[in-house]
Structure formats: structure tokens, C-alpha cells
Amino acid sequence: MTDFVTPGVPADTAELIALDRAHVWHPYASMTDPTPAYPVVGASGVRLQFADGREVVDGMSSWWAAIHGYRHPVLDAAARDQLDRMSHVMFGGLTHPGAIGLAQRLVAITGEGMEHVFFSDSGSVGVEVAIKMALQYWRGRGEPRQRLLTVRGGYHGDTFATMAVCDPVGGMHHLFTGVLPEHLFAPRPPDGYDAPLDEAWVAATADLLARHAGEVAAVIVEPTVQGAGGMRFHSPACVRALRELCDAHGVLLILDEIATGFGRTGAWFAHLAADVVPDILCVGKAMTGGYLSMAATLCTPAVAASVCSGEAGALMHGPTYMANPLAAAVACANLDLLATGAWREQVAGIEAGLRAGLAAADGLPKVADVRVLGAIGVIETVGPVDVRAVTEAALAHGVWLRPFSNLIYTMPPYVTGAADVTRIAAAMVAGARANAGV
């Protein structure tokens, strides 16, 4: 028997693509008939370098996480410095300065009430942890509750507990209906960040919660922006109304800010803009600036006390890579960059540029809506988008976009300059035209 020899990665682009198609299963993609995947061999600033020599502006921030772009000197230095110390250490029975410093920063910026931090290794797991906290909270009170209440149109992750609170009809996980726990779904919040509070929506949600208040452990929602469920914006007043309903019925409020946190909407966090204190808060994605996977679930002292007073005496969760020192070091450096406040002007500039550039999509065939909030720009189409046609149209403009469902959208890095924002908007409009065949 001979030793296994790891094959070298080929430099030839065609061979790279062939090997990828043969062996690599991409997210939400067929293994037997995959859509094209473009090999990336480098990245700097807001640009991705393809293996075929093209450089394109990244309009996606690597799924909304790389808010400072790529190869940022401060974040690179933080990672290198931590590598010289240790790359990982278990968090059971041990701790380290990076985790302590990151927890201290998160408590400081997430608002009054968020005092305890549980680290995990992805956004989906962070939401799973939040759900566990809510369930164990009620067990600690001697009143076990098993159900959650959420709203239509939401998305909270790909793991089983999180899939159960994604939209069961229009969401990406309807295939698993019948396997997942059955929770309660209120109507989707009315569209419009600046819209007045819709009392009919409040009444319908209040009625659903009142009828099931004794069995509901928590209400869980994405505040002001529903991300992968549809890129829809709703008023902060809706979040405040949910807080009031939870208080009236003695139910916990979980806010999922995996997508909205760290400045994406124009505020540090969407719940702060809504002037709402949740009982449990989920953050992730942009927390490490897109360098490493990490999430955190924060809670109030009341939640922690009840969880730990139950029969287990502890929160029953413990990821292997919890509080990974490399991720924590980069996250601390990232939050220090954000603390300078430069992101506020950057996000405002992106919002203005997207509003101006995306106006050209209004009235195009198969365009249902155009909307912008902070560093988020959306062209909603009538019917599913032609992913290949839109992607190729965007690449022809030198921009990487990843459309899905009926959405052509962008969440660019905050450091994207005005000229590149204009280019992204033009690429989105071109994608909308390609989608409509005009």
C-alpha cells in the first residue's frame, strides 16, 4: 500500500472548472447539472480576481460579510498576529483575551440589556442557540414551552431549528414541511421602511399571539429587513409593536440581526434604530469583516438566570470552534475599525448612489419593484430571475452579483467608491434588461 499523495491544484482555468464540476457541491446548486462557478484566485479592495484574468467589482461582500473589502491591512495584521500566538484553543474550561475583548465590545455596542455573549461558528448555529436559550428559559421557569411565533417572508438559516421558522410556503425550505416542528406564522410586515404602522397587521399578529400565548416561548424576527426571504424592508414601528406584544403576553423577543447588524441598514443595529431592546440577539456575518466564520448570541441577565436555574444548570450547546481565537482577533479589529464611524458616511454614500443608479430600472419589463435601504439595493422581478442571464450581464459590466429567486440585489462592501457603486447599479439594470430579454 502506498501513501496517499495530495494532488496539486492545477493552474489551468479549464481544468480547475472541470475538477470543480466533478467533485464540488455548491450551495443551492445541482451536483449533476450545476450552474457555472467562476474560479477566484485573488481579491483586493472591492475587486475579485478571476482565474481567467478578469477583475470584477464584488457587489455581494461575499454574502454580505466583507464590509471592508479584501486584504484590509488592519484585519490582515490582526490575523497574522494571532497566528503567531495560537490559531485555536477549545473554549470548554478555557478562555482567551480575544474572546473576552470581543464580548466586551459586543456588549458595549448592542445597547442596554445585552450583557451575556455566547459564541458560535455560523449564523444558522447562532440562531439555533437563541432558540435553545428561549426553550431552556421556560424550562427554568418550570413552564416548558415548545412553539415559536414569527412572520411570513422570513429566513433564519439552513439548520433544522432555523428552517422551521423560515417561511414554510415561499421560503427555500418548503421541501421539509412535515419533518420540521410546526410553529406559528403571523402575516408578513407591510412593506416600506418609512411606512406608518399598519394597525390591521398589528391586530392580526396580536390575535395570533393571544390565542397561543401560553405555548409560545418567543417571537423571532429579522428587524426592519427580511434578508434571504425576499430582501423586503418594513418599518421600525413594526419591531416596536412586536416588543409591546411580547411584553403584554410575557413572551421573549429574539431579533435576528445576522444580516442587518454592523451598519448594513445605516444604523449600528436595526434594533437600535427601532429603539427596541430584545431579550435575545443574534449577530454574525459582518462581525469578522468576512475573514472567518463566526456568530454570537447575546441575551439579558434575566434570560441567562432562568436558563441556568433549570435542571441542566447550563446552556446545552458547545461548538468545537466556539470563540475561535483567529476569528475573535479579526472581529475585534473589525469592530475597532467600525468604531471610527467612517462606515456611516460610506453607507450613506452607497445608498445615494444606488438610489440614483437603480432609478433606471423603474418601468422596465418584468420589474415589480426597486428599493434601497442603507447599503442594500434591490430590483424585484416578476417571476424567478434567469440566474445565468443576469450573472453574465453583470459580468459584462465588470460586476459580480448573485441573483436568486425573484431578486437582483446588491450588498456591496462599505468601502466601495462612488464610481464602483454606479457601476454596480448599471450592472443590476443590465441584468434586469437581460432577464426581460430587452
From TrEMBL:
Keyword Cytoplasm: yes
Needed co-factor(s): pyridoxal 5'-phosphate
Positions bound to pyridoxal 5'-phosphate: G123, S124, D256, P319, T320
Site (Participates in the substrate recognition with KAPA and in a stacking interaction with the adenine ring of SAM): residue numbering on this chain: Y28
Cellular location(s): Cytoplasm
Pathway info: Cofactor biosynthesis; biotin biosynthesis; 7,8-diaminononanoate from 8-amino-7-oxononanoate (SAM route): step 1/1
Keywords: Aminotransferase, Biotin biosynthesis, Cytoplasm, Pyridoxal phosphate, S-adenosyl-L-methionine, Transferase
Gene3D superfamilies reported for this sequence: Aspartate Aminotransferase, domain 1 (3.90.1150.10), Type I PLP-dependent aspartate aminotransferase-like (Major domain) (3.40.640.10)
Membrane-crossing residue ranges in chain numbering: none
Entry EC no(s): 2.6.1.62
One Pfam family recorded for the sequence: Aminotran_3
Modified residues (N6-(pyridoxal phosphate)lysine): K285
Main location: cytoplasm
Residues where substrate binds: W63, Y155, K285, G318, R402
Reactions the enzyme catalyzes: (8S)-8-amino-7-oxononanoate + S-adenosyl-L-methionine = S-adenosyl-4-methylsulfanyl-2-oxobutanoate + (7R,8S)-7,8-diammoniononanoate
NCBIfam families, A to Z: bioA, PRK05964.1
Family, similarity comment: Belongs to the class-III pyridoxal-phosphate-dependent aminotransferase family. BioA subfamily.
Function: Catalyzes the transfer of the alpha-amino group from S-adenosyl-L-methionine (SAM) to 7-keto-8-aminopelargonic acid (KAPA) to form 7,8-diaminopelargonic acid (DAPA). It is the only aminotransferase known to utilize SAM as an amino donor.
Subunit structure and binding partners: Homodimer.
Full protein name: Adenosylmethionine-8-amino-7-oxononanoate aminotransferase
